[in-house]
Specification:
By secondary structure, this protein is α+β, with helices and mostly antiparallel strands. The protein has 17 helices and 19 strands. The strands form 6 sheets. Strands 11, 12, 13, 16 and 17 form a 5-stranded antiparallel beta sheet that branches. A 4-stranded mixed beta sheet has the order 1-10-9-8, with helices on one face. The longest helix has 18 residues. The protein starts with about 35 loop residues before the first strand and ends with a strand.
Length: about 550
């Protein structure tokens, strides 16, 4: 963190399954003057802060809430918003002091209790919140969310409200950069109506951000409107955002060109070669903290028996990343050689080549390793992906062609499409993946920890493959406790070396953020996480 009492290391993050755009239409500008229309996809779940771990729901939460901190749209740095200060003398006991003047859009004051109640709700086992693991470092978490059995407490002992503007947090280990995590949506405050009228709140969420939810029709549109009394320093520069659901991002791109849509934030792969000519300086193509990968279902014994690490490494070596990124993605992707992103830089933990030979195309070695490991389960594999964007099929097919050619077997690999993003995520959550599946990750803050712990730590919030390795966990714990940046980076990178040996997930390529907009709107940008900065968009 960039504050006086914080270092640079952080806890869990959101799982992100990338770019679920969908079907829609209608005229540009939503249903009123000054309203921006943008492509979107229905989120997997209702948009509760502690239960949203995918990018579509995350877009709504970014507009609807403000927390103790927010990640700067340009740099990703965690900066105080509602927090006046977060102090510690030992990196274990923190005192949080709030600024005055913050309210929810229903008029209720944002107080220390708004945060403590929200965090306890998110951590409580019986509430089944997908991001509960974000609270695992708070003392008493194991009592409200035990690894097995029923909860023994209703609230974490490490959270204590002192007064309306102050609360204390006791962690169960030293964690010098714990404050850096507090801009993530799981840590947002909640009004009392969330607890007393929960069903009604889910239908029309109430937050404290620059927008309010006007209405939501699943499969069609969510209408966000400017909150005129928003007390923050980053008010909406437009009258609202219509998030229109598209089942095919090619359709969204066509609507953009026809003037029926103002903004798309995921240019289809098939249109990348034309986007610059089509849109000129209204085409956005910039580096982002995004990595695309394949995850193996390690809960399936067929993929997790002894020797299968050779098969997994062999599959990785059978993928010609260079060819696919050049031909399909028109160089808007870069072949991955580790599990993070170059946007981190050396200080943030990126180090090229940590994947080693396993991420370098070598057809002969790939075939050898797959054979030595016992072969593909049943002699073939499927790669599952959501089919509601036109872009995934192309590169999944290209990967399978590469694998099939390397293994001299045209039936070794085939794509397995699932109709919608929501259905795809539900199958992942239900652990119903028959083989490797598409796994996109979008950083929540520019630290190496954010790319590793959520996805590969035992019971991590986005460990969809259910991989577990005590050595990896030990190194992550040591890195989180480190107060020296170089020491922390080294521990995390040592943990990456275990990923390279075991290959529970195959890193494919680093992804640029892409988008496009029409001439009706200005001041359009993507943040460092490749999400539009909606509140800054202006309507001409």
């Amino acid at each position: 963190m960039r504050g006086a009492t914080c270092a640079k290391w952080a806890v869990c993050a959101v799982a992100v399954a990338l770019a679920a755009t969908a079907c829609g239409g209608g005229g540009s500008g939503g249903d009123g003057s000054g309203v921006v229309s943008s492509s979107w996809g229905d989120p997997q779940n209702p948009v509760e802060p502690a239960n949203t771990n995918e990018v579509q729901g995350g877009k709504v939460l970014e507009m609807l809430f403000r927390g103790l901190k927010r990640y700067d749209p340009k740099t990703g740095a965690a900066e105080n918003v509602i927090a006046d200060k977060i102090e510690t003398t030992d990196s274990k006991n923190y005192t949080v002091t709030l600024k005055s003047g913050w309210t929810f859009s229903n008029g209720e004051k944002v107080t220390a209790k708004s945060f403590v109640d929200a965090w306890n709700y998110g951590a409580q086992l019986s509430n089944k919140q997908r991001n509960a693991a974000f609270f695992q470092y708070i003392d008493g978490y194991d009592q409200v969310h035990p690894a097995s059995g029923a909860a023994k407490a209703k609230a974490m002992s490490g959270l204590v409200v002192k007064d309306d503007k102050t609360f204390t947090v006791k962690l169960n280990q030293k964690f010098s950069s714990w404050p850096d995590t507090l801009g993530y949506s799981a840590f947002m405050p909640l009004p009392q109506s969330f607890f007393t009228q929960h069903d009604a709140w889910l239908k029309k969420p109430v937050g404290n951000g620059p927008y309010v939810v006007d209405s939501y029709t699943k499969g069609s549109v969510m209408k966000m409107r400017k909150w005129a009394k928003y007390p923050g320093k980053d008010p909406a520069q437009n009258a609202g955002i219509d998030l229109r659901v598209y089942t095919d991002n090619n359709t969204a791109y066509t609507d953009l060109q026809a003037g029926n849509l103002d903004l798309v934030d995921d240019v289809p792969a098939a249109q990348l070669k034309n986007a610059q000519a089509d849109l000129g300086d209204r085409y956005i193509n910039q580096p982002a903290g995004i990595i695309q990968a394949l995850t193996f279902p390690m809960y399936d014994k067929k993929w997790n028996k002894p020797g299968m690490e050779k098969v997994r490494r062999g599959i990785s070596m059978a993928i010609n990343r260079e060819l696919i990124t050049n031909e399909i993605f028109q160089k808007t992707r870069t072949p991955a050689s580790d599990w993070t992103s170059p946007v981190l830089g050396a200080d943030g933990g990126y180090k090229a080549g940590l994947c080693g030979d396993a991420c370098i195309f070598n057809a002969a070695k790939a075939k050898q390793l797959v054979k030595e490991g016992g072969g593909l389960p049943g002699g073939k594999m499927t790669i599952t992906y959501n089919a509601d964007t036109g872009s995934h099929k192309d590169w999944i097919d290209a990967i399978c062609n590469s694998v099939n050619n390397a293994l001299d077997n045209d039936k070794a690999c085939v794509g397995n499409p699932v109709g919608t993003f929501a259905d795809f995520r539900n199958k992942i959550t239900a652990r119903q993946m028959p083989g490797p599946f598409r796994a996109g990750w979008q950083m929540d803050y520019p630290l190496i920890q954010n790319f590793l712990q959520p996805l590969y730590y035992t019971n991590g919030s986005s460990n969809d493959g259910v991989w577990s390795n005590p050595g990896f966990d030990k190194l992550v714990n040591e890195a989180n406790a480190a107060t020296d940046t170089k020491e922390a980076v080294g521990k995390f990178q040592d943990a990456e070396k275990i990923l390279a040996e075991q290959m529970p997930g195959i890193p494919l390529w680093y992804q640029n953020g892409s988008g496009g907009y029409n001439d009706r709107i200005t001041n359009v940008s993507l943040n460092s996480f490749s999400v539009p900065v909606y509140n800054e968009i202006k309507v001409s």
